[in-house]
From TrEMBL:
<dbReference type="InterPro" id="IPR020904">
    <property type="entry name" value="Sc_DH/Rdtase_CS"/>
</dbReference>
<protein>
    <submittedName>
        <fullName>SDR family oxidoreductase</fullName>
    </submittedName>
</protein>
<keyword id="KW-0560">Oxidoreductase</keyword>
<dbReference type="InterPro" id="IPR036291">
    <property type="entry name" value="NAD(P)-bd_dom_sf"/>
</dbReference>
<comment type="similarity">
    <text>Belongs to the short-chain dehydrogenases/reductases (SDR) family.</text>
</comment>
<dbReference type="Pfam" id="PF00106">
    <property type="entry name" value="adh_short"/>
</dbReference>
<dbReference type="InterPro" id="IPR002347">
    <property type="entry name" value="SDR_fam"/>
</dbReference>
Length: 264
């Protein structure tokens, strides 16, 4: 058990599967109290029961559709009322649909912006006064290497993650002097159900299969860095190195990596 996390209340969005599920498990295993939110009531209930019986800790859960701003706002208010202070927020929920902009439909675009950006802003904005009042806490935003290096068929998704990174970096400078930690987690492809919606054809998932990250390992690393000063967590490291090169010489990288960028 990690004394740094013992008894801490950690709100996790998108907690019913994938990285979110493992974040909850690792948080509970270290003595924290995971507060789960997602759309699937059945999965949340099962997750909560499993965590409580396995680790002997409370694990409250709240059904919420993060694409519905009014519903999400009410849910956060309810969490604050019922749970009291929240010590950490992990904005993990995210969706994608990979398509050329010209072929996209507005419903997909709107949902990506709503879940990936608006809901993250909403949760942070509502919980920030509580964290500042406590004088300590941690906000972790699950971003993406796509927020540093965009590729074809992910224009909107990459734009949402650029927004998350910009928001995270500015927020960090605002609140670190006041005792809060803010971290972005920039990931490459992760082996979750994310791609079933992002690319139903399965072609992209097959193309990047060998480089996919293990969600359990990702979650373990994120939880281990909670309540420590950590600007970014970048996985895999080689992909982050590529992003740094891209920032210096974008035209050259786009030319050299043309075929790889077209894998979606």
């Amino acid at each position: 058990m990690n004394e740094r996390l013992k008894g801490k209340k950690i709100l996790i969005t998108g907690a019913s599967s994938g990285i979110g599920q493992f974040l909850a498990i690792h948080a509970a295993s270290e003595g924290a109290v995971p507060i789960l939110t997602a759309r699937s009531e059945d999965k949340l209930e099962l997750m909560s029961e499993t965590i409580e019986s396995t680790f002997g800790t409370s694990c409250p859960w709240y059904k919420a559709d993060l694409s519905n701003d009014a519903e999400w706002k009410d849910t956060i208010d309810r969490i604050c009322y019922e749970q009291g202070s929240v010590d950490a927020l992990i904005n993990n929920a995210g969706v994608a649909v990979f398509d050329y902009v010209a072929d996209s439909n507005w419903q997909d675009i709107d949902r990506m912006v709503s879940v990936n950006v608006t809901s993250l802003f909403r949760a942070t904005h509502q919980l920030l006064p509580h964290l500042l009042q406590n004088g300590e806490g941690h906000i972790v935003n699950i971003a993406s290497q796509a927020g540093k290096m965009a590729t074809p068929k992910s224009a909107v998704y990459a734009a949402t993650k650029h927004a998350v990174l910009g928001f995270t970096n500015a927020l960090r400078m605002e609140v670190e002097p006041l005792g809060l930690h803010v971290t972005s987690v920039n990931l490459g492809p992760v082996r979750t159900n994310f791609f079933k919606q992002a690319d139903p054809s399965g072609n992209y998932e097959k193309a990047v299969d060998k480089m996919m990250l293990d969600p359990n390992k990702v979650a373990r690393i994120v939880i281990s860095r909670l309540f420590t000063k950590q600007r970014e967590i970048n996985l895999p490291s080689w992909m982050n190195s590529g992003s740094k090169v891209y920032a210096v010489a974008p035209s050259a990288v786009e030319k050299i990596m043309h075929k790889q960028f077209k894998k979606k």
